[in-house]
Amino acid sequence: MDNAKKIDQKTRASSCCVKKLTLTNFRNYSNLRLDFSSDPVVLTGLNGSGKTNILEAISFLSPGRGLRNVKLELVDRIDESGVYPWGVAADICSDFEEYQVGTGRDNNIAGNKRIVKIDGEKTRGQAELARIFSVMWLTPQMDGLFVGPTSDRRKFLDRLVYNFDPEHASRVYSYEYSVRERAKLLQGQPDTSWLAVLENKIAERAIAIAAARISAIEIIQKSIWQAPTEFPKATIGVDGAVELAVSNNSALQVEEELRKKLHDARENDARTGRTSVGTHRSDFVVTHAQKNMPAASCSTGEQKALLLSIIMAEARAKALWKNSVPVLLLDEVVAHLDEARRATLFNEFLEMKAQVWMTGTDGSLFEDLRGKAQFLSVDDGVVSDVSTPL
Fold this sequence. Notes:
This protein is of the alpha+beta class and 390 residues long. The protein is built from ten helices and 18 strands. The chain has two domains: 1-134 and 324-390, Rossmann fold (3-Layer(aba) Sandwich), CATH 3.40.50; 139-323, Glutathione S-transferase Yfyf (Class Pi), Chain A, domain 2 (Up-down Bundle). Strand 13 (283-288) and strand 14 form a beta hairpin.
């Protein structure tokens, strides 16, 4: 936005950070206001106290349905007197500019519609958030990413891409909308001219999506190979017909071929109710490089370490290639790491000057960050600053 405030580059330690956060009727928080520096943030407290809710609120400063990927009405605060639509407001710093961001569920529209405002101006959609705020997260629910549905891995990949190409978010939304509209048309007596328009849009967006995925993967892979780390190195890639074609042919040629495949698949797609070709069929593939073993075949601990390794590599890559570091949300991560890997993790985040949000029930695991991070205690929706031990 044009009215974003310029900030002093010398005073900012992190390229992207949350400076103020206000939650209204967000899960167990009726009203919460917090101020932060650009340093890491440690949230400690018992399970169910509300630590992850704060991370989830920050994740809503990016496109999508947050780190829990739930229906928006499920985030509303509920008590004996009623249901209250949620809202999140934040002052964020990004690329040496300051923005005021607000988002929440629209109480006037049923279902999963949310409003987004940047510097007081309502945006047409959520994709604009990707341009001004970079964030990645790792939660216990993602432990099964490599053995779960393809769609979850694809969404993870696309979120990685957002941080290198903010326009990727709007392309993905536009592509998915066109795919849904084509599927609806095929269930009736479709207007062939409108079908052709939709298939042109799908083909055009698919080529751009595939190219962005390939580019981001190449950048992150270089970061993985270059970094000395205690974490396992991953070989990453995308398994998709469109991505493979884009890698070996001109964009115009692939676009024309995809358009023809969509046309030829109309009868089959009408019968199945699915779109049989496109980038929505692609998969994010990961291999444990040292063991030459698919991530899905690795132990649970190794899978978590590989995920963390990829997120760390993404942050390093963005710092190197884009001169910017994303905000990282790590929910209950360090409890599963040995002392050496915890030290590696903390040192990397401090060297990158990243604002990393970490949660845990055992505050002693974060003692190496004492004096270098803001420590908050969370107790049943009450947040207290305990950065300086009593």
